[in-house]
Design goal:
Layout lengths: L14 E6 L4 E5 L60 H47 L4 H47 L32 E12 L8 E14 L5 E4 L2 E3 L24 H5 L1 E2 L27 E3 L4 E3 L6 E18 L7 E8 L9 E7 L2 E8 L7 E9 L2 E13 L6 E13 L9 E8 L8 E5 L10 E2 L4 E8 L4 E12 L3 E2 L2
Parallel strand pairs: 3-12, 7-22, 10-17
Antiparallel strand pairs: 1-2, 3-4, 4-10, 5-9, 6-8, 10-11, 11-14, 12-13, 15-16, 16-21, 17-20, 18-21, 19-20
Helix pairs in contact: 1-2
Length: about 525
């Protein structure tokens, strides 16, 4: 099994004769090529794209030569730029050389990709031949091994050439971009809008005059950003450690002038917002008698209430200052170029004690997450913003810090741990009283908590598990926690329906938690 993949270069096909007719002409072209024995695919031209396909006729007068197929192929191709003349600058000549080298490298890349595709097809055919031959008992191990080795060697060689060509293309593209930028700056400088400030000043006595001018400019903004570094406690049994929170301001500006060594102050004031109070509209409340259908039935529905959220931020949030304008001065002069890119300006840092717990909410996620709580010791409120999380193993991801007042407690999630697994099972039983029609629903939730640890781990860790129980807002529906069937008994049960267990888990330990509650509704309740 062999294949010839040697490409033939494009050969010019000049016009040798033309026959002009009444409304068209017949063009004849001729050329002579040196060809080896075998079947060759030639690419001649270029020719005019207006050639009529069905009038194409190819002949040969050479004995022993025969034309098997002839056709016209058209494709869209970008026009090559005109070569620079002697009056052009050296930069334009360099750009022309880079564009020519880039086109040649791109053509080489296309040829290599086509060759690799052909070798892949050849390898597939060879493997199919091996399978078919082995199925009928025709085993040619020597030839198969030789052909496979040859195909693999060809694929490796051309693959290496393709990687080198792609690397050269990237390098040429970068150099071409730099040359274009340099050409724009040197020879095609656009017009620039320049503004001047005119002042009329009256001075009564001769002497120095200090002037201060202030104005607003668009195309400049900032957002807060943080970096939290968690230091573990001294002993594995201790859940307390320290956390260092570094505050930064991410500043973008494209005002047309660089800010170099300025005293930077960051504010959350929104001067563009309107200062007029909102208009007051009448809100009319009316009373009416309930209908007989409404007296007979109580429509209820289940709805989800988000009590608290903690997790990574999808994007940089807007400024959340708690409803009061905040002013944060930068501790040192800052430099922000007018390039539209993000530039970080340090604002401050503090280190405080932090408590850590492993928390899990199996209804939302089977993962056990390390949650760190700390007090805001910065002396000023912390604005909402993204946080880069760092602990003993290094960078662990990104989180979100919500607006935190001075001295208030804040929470950060440092990601999940792979050493825990939680499986949640639910069971529901419904019953209706025959005489009163009272509906009772008993739901049982079983949580199987396991810890997978290495041989070097010997400490016992506390995992906080939280489950949710519905909370009723109507007197016709009652929700009761069946404490006698809960195993073990919950450590807490708050008014928002959150049940909490503090489960100690040693290395390789497994625990099963059972939660049971019942929902009782009167006969006139519908929609439950």
């Amino acid at each position: 099994m062999t294949a010839s993949t040697s490409p033939h270069p494009v050969t010019a096909l000049p016009v040798t004769a033309v026959t002009c007719l009444e409304d068209r002409s017949r063009v004849e072209r001729a050329t002579t090529l040196q060809l080896a024995a075998g079947v060759h695919r030639l690419r001649l031209g270029p020719v005019t794209a207006l050639a009529v396909d069905h009038t194409l006729r190819a002949e040969t007068a050479t004995p022993g030569a025969r034309i098997l197929e002839s056709r016209l192929v058209r494709n869209w191709s970008a026009r090559a730029p005109l070569p620079p003349g002697p009056e052009d600058s050296a930069l334009r000549h360099r750009l022309h050389e880079l564009e020519t080298a880039y086109r040649q490298a791109d053509q080489s890349r296309i040829r290599l990709e086509a060759r690799l595709a052909l070798l892949a097809q050849l390898c597939a055919d060879l493997l199919r031949e091996v399978g078919e031959g082995a199925g009928v008992g025709e085993i040619e191990r020597t030839r198969w091994a030789r052909e496979l080795e040859r195909v693999d060697a060809e694929r490796e060689r051309f693959g290496e050439e393709l990687r080198a060509t792609r690397s050269r293309l990237r390098r040429l593209d970068q150099e071409r971009t730099e040359a274009l930028l340099a050409l724009d700056r040197a020879e095609e400088e656009p017009a620039e809008l320049v503004a001047h400030l005119e002042l009329t000043v009256e001075v009564s006595e001769p002497g120095p005059v200090a002037l201060t001018v202030g104005h607003l400019v668009p195309c400049a903004l900032w957002r807060p950003s943080y970096r939290a570094v968690l230091s573990p406690a001294g002993s594995p049994e201790d859940s307390r450690g320290s956390l260092r929170l570094e505050s930064e301001a991410v500043v973008w500006q494209r005002t047309g002038e660089d800010w170099t060594g300025v005293a930077l102050t960051l504010s959350t004031a929104r001067s563009a917002l309107a200062t007029d109070p909102p208009s007051i509209a009448a809100d009319v409340l009316t009373l009416r008698e309930r209908t007989d259908e409404e007296r007979r039935k109580v429509e209820v529905e289940l709805r989800e209430e988000a009590v608290n959220t903690l997790g990574p931020a999808v994007a940089v949030p807007g400024l959340d200052d708690g409803g009061e304008a905040r002013v944060l001065p930068a501790p040192a002069p800052a430099t922000v170029p007018s390039d539209g890119r993000a530039h970080r300006v340090p604002l401050g840092a503090f280190t405080t004690d932090a408590s850590s717990e492993y928390a899990c909410a199996p209804e939302l996620s089977p993962l056990v997450t390390q949650v760190v709580r700390f007090r805001n010791a910065a002396g000023h409120p912390l604005l909402a913003g993204p946080v880069e999380l760092v602990r003993g193993s290094g960078f662990t991801g990104r989180g979100e810090l919500r607006f935190t007042a001075a001295g208030a407690e804040a929470e950060l999630s440092f990601g999940s741990t792979d050493g825990y697994r939680v499986v949640r099972e639910t069971e529901e039983r419904r019953s209706t009283a025959t005489l009163t029609g009272r509906q009772t629903t008993v739901r049982t939730v079983r949580l199987h908590l396991s810890r997978f640890s290495g041989p070097e781990e010997r400490d016992e860790r506390l995992v906080t598990v939280r489950e949710r129980v519905p909370v009723s807002e109507v007197a016709a529906v009652e929700v009761r926690l069946r404490k006698e069937e809960c195993s073990p008994a919950p450590d807490s049960f708050d008014t928002e329906g959150i049940v909490r267990w503090d489960v100690p888990l040693g290395p390789g330990a497994r625990r099963t938690l059972t939660l049971s509650y019942e929902i009782t509704a009167s006969a006139k309740v519908a929609g439950l």
